[in-house]
Amino acid sequence: MNELDALVESAAQGFAQATTPADLENAKAVYLGKSGRITELMKGLAALPVEEKKTRGAIINQAKQAIEAALNARRQALADAELEAQLKAEALDVSLPGRRLGQGGLHPVSLTLERIEGIFGSMGFDVAQGPEIESDWFNFTALNTPEDHPARSMHDTFYVEGGTQAAPNLLRTHTSPMQIRHAVQHVRRYQALLDAGEPMPEIRVIAPGRTYRVDSDATHSPMFHQCEGLWIGANVSFKDLKVVFTDFCRTFFESDDLVLRFRPSFFPFTEPSAEIDIQFPSGPLAGRWLEVAGSGQVHPNVVRNMGLDPEKYIGFAFGMGPDRLTMLRYGVNDLRLFFDGDVRFLSQFQ
Ligand code: DAH
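# 3,4-dihydroxyphenylalanine complex -> structure
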């Protein structure tokens, strides 16, 4: 092997040993740099006679080209290797099975609320919503329950500072405050008709929502749901309440033979008042009376607080517990299951 072939060979080896681009540049300098081996050989040509210069020059040039080719090949190899390493590090395994979206569903109590809204909607009732932090006025006083009224003690709740109409101070203990809130809005809308002595369109509304009391056991939760109902007009009677509520219960429980009982009771905001019990004709609860709502004819004082003349407007109200309706419909015996958030329980209602 001549001297130049040996040089090309050693350059190729030097390049092969370089494992990084920086190593490779150093190796290149040894052969092709300013004082590299090839450069030195070129400089040596100057001292040779013309003919020799030509032949030797051509041979050195060949060697130079061979070295450059080896350098470029190695550069490419290092670049390829780097790219491959990078791809490996960022590997995306397209054969992994995908993560499926968990399928959610409505809470059983939400299903009940939707059902209630659907049934009352079909009977021409609007749906209203109101604040859960309520003022003393709407929760008690406007509902004919003054400050010293013993009925307040049954509604032990969570109070905060404040306590004016503008500064609500308690977590509402029932949805009944919505009777006043909704009626006042309705009356305001039709004030011109009322002022002219014209008949006002009837108030027909339900108001579902969360309510709060200091209570906790298998059938009571500090947060629970209620759904209020209110129907006020010039000529709405207790008979209408019976028809509407009976219809509702039979539709809700899908049982035309369901029996209802209106049992005399007391609420400050209704007179007369009744508790409503139902009895299933068959099934595990057959024959038992189960309480599902409070109700009654709206008290004249309450009608007055709605901004209406109790001599001209009359109607009924009711308040039921959607949690209890859900328990009865699905045969659940512990209310707390609804609020534990256990997916194994909740997923059974989908
Ligand atoms: N607000 C009552 C309660 O929570 C339930 C109730 C009774 C609502 C009679 C009414 C009603 O609208 O007329 O105990």
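# post-check
The pocket of 3,4-dihydroxyphenylalanine is lined by residues 174, 176, 228, 267, 270, 294-296, 317-319 (CB under 6 Å).
The chain has two domains: 3-89, 108-349.
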